[in-house]
Protein backbone atom coordinates (compact mmCIF):
# COMPACT_ATOMS: atom_id res chain seq x y z
CA UNK A 1 0.00 0.00 0.00
CA UNK A 2 1.78 3.15 -1.20
CA UNK A 3 1.16 6.46 0.46
CA UNK A 4 0.19 8.11 -2.82
CA UNK A 5 -1.90 5.27 -4.15
CA UNK A 6 -5.61 5.36 -3.45
CA UNK A 7 -5.67 2.38 -1.12
CA UNK A 8 -6.19 4.59 1.90
CA UNK A 9 -9.83 5.65 1.85
CA UNK A 10 -10.90 5.99 5.46
CA UNK A 11 -9.43 7.14 8.76
CA UNK A 12 -9.32 3.50 9.68
CA UNK A 13 -7.19 2.70 6.61
CA UNK A 14 -4.87 5.56 7.50
CA UNK A 15 -4.61 4.32 11.09
CA UNK A 16 -3.69 0.82 9.91
CA UNK A 17 -1.21 2.18 7.36
CA UNK A 18 0.51 4.24 10.04
CA UNK A 19 0.57 1.27 12.43
CA UNK A 20 2.36 -0.66 9.69
CA UNK A 21 4.77 2.23 9.13
CA UNK A 22 5.85 2.30 12.78
CA UNK A 23 5.91 -1.52 12.89
CA UNK A 24 8.45 -1.48 10.05
CA UNK A 25 10.34 1.36 11.76
CA UNK A 26 10.56 -0.49 15.09
CA UNK A 27 11.96 -3.55 13.33
CA UNK A 28 14.60 -1.46 11.55
CA UNK A 29 15.49 0.15 14.89
CA UNK A 30 15.84 -3.33 16.42
CA UNK A 31 18.38 -4.17 13.71
CA UNK A 32 20.33 -0.95 14.17
CA UNK A 33 20.49 -0.57 17.97
CA UNK A 34 23.14 -3.30 18.40
CA UNK A 35 25.46 -1.29 16.12
CA UNK A 36 24.90 1.81 18.23
CA UNK A 37 25.55 -0.18 21.43
CA UNK A 38 28.83 -1.42 19.93
CA UNK A 39 29.97 2.07 18.96
CA UNK A 40 29.05 3.80 22.23
CA UNK A 41 31.92 4.33 24.68
CA UNK A 42 30.24 6.05 27.61
CA UNK A 43 28.95 3.32 29.96
CA UNK A 44 25.66 5.00 30.75
CA UNK A 45 25.02 5.56 27.06
CA UNK A 46 25.79 1.94 26.21
CA UNK A 47 23.50 0.75 29.01
CA UNK A 48 20.81 3.20 27.96
CA UNK A 49 20.85 1.84 24.41
CA UNK A 50 20.85 -1.72 25.77
CA UNK A 51 17.82 -1.01 27.92
CA UNK A 52 16.06 0.59 24.98
CA UNK A 53 16.81 -2.44 22.81
CA UNK A 54 14.82 -4.54 25.29
CA UNK A 55 12.06 -1.92 25.34
CA UNK A 56 12.01 -1.87 21.54
CA UNK A 57 11.36 -5.63 21.50
CA UNK A 58 8.39 -4.84 23.73
CA UNK A 59 7.23 -2.12 21.31
CA UNK A 60 7.08 -4.68 18.50
CA UNK A 61 5.09 -7.05 20.72
CA UNK A 62 2.65 -4.29 21.74
CA UNK A 63 2.14 -3.33 18.10
CA UNK A 64 1.34 -6.97 17.29
CA UNK A 65 -1.19 -6.83 20.12
CA UNK A 66 -2.79 -3.72 18.60
CA UNK A 67 -2.97 -5.35 15.14
CA UNK A 68 -4.72 -8.30 16.73
CA UNK A 69 -7.10 -6.15 18.77
CA UNK A 70 -7.99 -4.23 15.62
CA UNK A 71 -8.43 -7.41 13.59
CA UNK A 72 -5.83 -6.69 10.90
CA UNK A 73 -2.73 -8.52 9.78
CA UNK A 74 0.52 -7.51 11.50
CA UNK A 75 2.82 -6.44 8.70
CA UNK A 76 5.14 -3.59 7.86
CA UNK A 77 5.08 -1.06 5.04
CA UNK A 78 8.21 0.73 3.86
CA UNK A 79 9.05 3.78 5.88
CA UNK A 80 11.60 5.89 3.98
CA UNK A 81 11.71 8.35 6.89
CA UNK A 82 13.23 5.91 9.39
CA UNK A 83 15.48 4.42 6.70
CA UNK A 84 16.86 7.92 6.11
CA UNK A 85 17.32 8.69 9.80
CA UNK A 86 19.16 5.39 10.38
CA UNK A 87 21.28 5.81 7.23
CA UNK A 88 22.33 9.27 8.33
CA UNK A 89 23.18 7.95 11.81
CA UNK A 90 25.38 5.29 10.25
CA UNK A 91 27.11 7.78 7.96
CA UNK A 92 27.87 10.33 10.66
CA UNK A 93 29.13 7.63 13.03
CA UNK A 94 31.50 6.50 10.29
CA UNK A 95 32.93 9.97 9.95
CA UNK A 96 33.71 10.66 13.63
CA UNK A 97 37.10 9.64 14.93
CA UNK A 98 37.21 10.76 18.56
CA UNK A 99 35.16 8.39 20.73
CA UNK A 100 33.76 11.16 22.96
CA UNK A 101 32.59 13.05 19.92
CA UNK A 102 31.20 9.78 18.56
CA UNK A 103 29.11 9.39 21.74
CA UNK A 104 27.68 12.87 21.19
CA UNK A 105 26.86 11.94 17.58
CA UNK A 106 25.20 8.69 18.71
CA UNK A 107 23.07 10.56 21.24
CA UNK A 108 21.95 13.01 18.57
CA UNK A 109 21.15 10.15 16.20
CA UNK A 110 19.27 8.30 18.94
CA UNK A 111 17.21 11.38 19.65
CA UNK A 112 16.30 11.76 15.98
CA UNK A 113 14.99 8.18 16.07
CA UNK A 114 13.04 8.76 19.31
CA UNK A 115 11.50 11.96 17.96
CA UNK A 116 10.31 10.11 14.87
CA UNK A 117 8.71 7.45 17.05
CA UNK A 118 7.17 10.07 19.33
CA UNK A 119 5.48 11.84 16.42
CA UNK A 120 4.12 8.56 15.04
CA UNK A 121 2.84 7.25 18.38
CA UNK A 122 1.38 10.65 19.28
CA UNK A 123 -0.62 10.59 16.06
CA UNK A 124 -1.63 6.94 16.47
CA UNK A 125 -2.90 7.49 20.02
CA UNK A 126 -5.02 10.44 18.85
CA UNK A 127 -6.40 8.54 15.86
CA UNK A 128 -7.14 5.41 17.89
CA UNK A 129 -9.26 7.53 20.26
CA UNK A 130 -10.97 9.24 17.32
CA UNK A 131 -11.84 5.81 15.93
CA UNK A 132 -13.32 4.72 19.24
CA UNK A 133 -10.41 2.38 19.96
CA UNK A 134 -9.36 3.63 23.36
CA UNK A 135 -8.20 0.06 24.07
CA UNK A 136 -5.65 0.36 21.24
CA UNK A 137 -4.80 3.91 22.33
CA UNK A 138 -3.90 2.69 25.81
CA UNK A 139 -1.43 0.13 24.44
CA UNK A 140 0.13 2.63 22.01
CA UNK A 141 0.42 5.15 24.84
CA UNK A 142 2.76 2.75 26.66
CA UNK A 143 5.15 2.78 23.70
CA UNK A 144 4.86 6.56 23.48
CA UNK A 145 5.72 6.94 27.17
CA UNK A 146 8.85 4.80 26.81
CA UNK A 147 10.03 6.72 23.73
CA UNK A 148 9.57 9.99 25.61
CA UNK A 149 11.44 8.68 28.65
CA UNK A 150 14.30 7.51 26.41
CA UNK A 151 14.47 10.87 24.68
CA UNK A 152 14.64 12.64 28.05
CA UNK A 153 17.36 10.29 29.27
CA UNK A 154 19.43 11.02 26.16
CA UNK A 155 18.99 14.75 26.71
CA UNK A 156 20.13 14.44 30.32
CA UNK A 157 23.09 12.31 29.32
CA UNK A 158 24.13 14.76 26.64
CA UNK A 159 23.83 17.73 28.94
CA UNK A 160 25.52 16.27 31.99
CA UNK A 161 28.37 14.23 30.61
CA UNK A 162 29.09 13.53 27.03
CA UNK A 163 29.01 17.05 25.67
CA UNK A 164 31.32 18.19 28.44
CA UNK A 165 33.78 15.43 27.69
CA UNK A 166 33.70 16.12 23.97
CA UNK A 167 34.56 19.76 24.57
CA UNK A 168 37.63 18.92 26.67
FE1 LIG B 1 10.10 2.15 19.82
FE1 LIG C 1 12.58 4.18 20.68
Task: Offer a quick outline of the entry.
With 168 residues, the chain is an all-alpha fold. The protein has helices at residues 11-39, 43-70, 80-95, 99-130, 134-167.
- Determine the number of helices (DSSP H or I, runs of at least 4 residues): 5
Assign the CATH topology: Ferritin
Please give the CATH class. Answer: Mainly Alpha
* Biggest sheet layout: none
- Which regions contain 5 or more consecutive residues with pLDDT less than 50? none
- Overall pLDDT: 93
What binds here, in terms of ligands, is:
fe (iii) ion
Helical content class: over 70%
Strand content: under 5%
Radius of gyration, in angstroms, nearest whole number: 17 Å
Order of helices and strands: HHHHH
CATH superfamily: Ferritin, core subunit, four-helix bundle
The CATH architecture classification is: Up-down Bundle
Describe the global form. elongated
